[in-house]
Design goal:
304 residues, alpha+beta, six-stranded antiparallel beta sheet, three-stranded antiparallel beta sheet, elongated, disordered N terminus
């Protein structure tokens, strides 16, 4: 009988690995205790930011892109008149509306399916033979420096500027087609009165500030101190002493970062990008931007 030495060697290694794994699984895990702590940073905003979803529509993709470009140039001119910081004006790369992950397109598809399934009488198309229009969209971002010194002055100045921006209609929402307006109403009706994501042309406003690195370090140290205190109380409750740090993690987020960016980009079927500036924080209150820093710490514990 011929014996395959390589197969035997592999079987022995596998058996040894299985034995070692079983022994490790059976040995008790080293006891640890976890504590969490948080600290907040609040600073006056440096700029007010507006974000607007611009949309272009046409019979072909080329036509839709041409309309989108024209609206971008129109918005850029309006922003200059409104006093936006020129260097802050930026447009995301255009993308096709209705692609994979587009939440609005998915809801439209669900709506059409319900109507075909007897959920309601579908509205007859104006021209059934015509191909559906091509739509493309992008996100415009622009900043205005804040010079007001007090929260009250910032509130007044911010509201006046927002009113001017809305009146300027950067995204040309007022000239949206009748079909687009009807589509928004239907989507809102399906979603309990709240349309999924922001409508094209509708501006959203936020207040932005820089958080210095030393302030983040100070807040993180305060959060760690609280986490350690909490873990120490748990250890003492178990008649044990706190040991060395075994694992640390920290995260921070401002009031509006998750809400503003998530809704804006998910409405386009996109993943919200990481901030280009890690020291930047966003909020909705002109009085100040609040950042929450949280720390999770895992400690070893000494025996009773």
């Amino acid at each position: 009988m011929t014996v395959n030495k390589r197969s035997v060697f592999g079987w022995v290694l596998g058996a040894l690995a299985l034995t070692a794994g079983t022994a490790q699984a059976e040995s008790p895990a080293e006891p640890t205790v976890t504590g969490t702590g948080a600290a907040t940073i609040k600073r006056a905003p440096d700029v007010m930011r507006v974000q607007v979803m611009l949309q272009g529509e046409g019979k072909t993709l080329k036509d839709a892109l041409a309309q989108l470009k024209a609206r971008q140039e129109s918005a850029r001119k309006k922003l200059a008149t409104l006093g936006a910081a020129e260097a802050s004006v930026a447009f995301e790369d255009p993308r096709v509306a209705g692609g994979p992950g587009d939440q609005r397109a998915q809801m439209e598809q669900i709506m059409r399916s319900r109507m075909r399934g007897g959920g309601g009488a579908a509205r007859p198309a104006t021209n059934p033979a015509a191909a559906p229009p091509q739509r493309v969209m992008t996100v415009l971002k622009a900043d205005w420096p804040i010079t007001a010194a007090t929260p009250e002055e910032r509130l007044i100045a911010g509201q006046e500027l927002q009113d001017k921006i809305k009146k300027a209609d950067l995204g040309e929402a007022k000239v949206a087609s009748l079909e687009e307006q009807e589509r928004r109403e239907e989507l809102a009706a399906m979603n309990g009165g709240d349309e999924a994501g922001a409508a094209p042309g509708e501006p959203s406003f936020s207040y932005v500030c820089k958080i210095p690195a030393d302030e983040r370090v100070k807040a993180t140290a305060e959060a760690f101190k609280k986490a350690k205190a909490q873990a120490g109380e748990i250890a003492r409750a178990a008649a044990a002493e706190l040991g060395d740090v075994r694992q640390l993690s920290s995260q921070s987020a401002s009031d509006a970062e998750q809400m503003m960016e998530y809704r804006r980009y998910r409405a386009m079927g996109m993943t919200p990008p990481a901030s280009a500036d890690e020291d930047e924080a966003t909020g909705t209150d002109p009085a100040g931007v609040t950042v929450r820093v949280s720390v999770t710490a895992v400690f070893g514990i000494k025996g009773k």
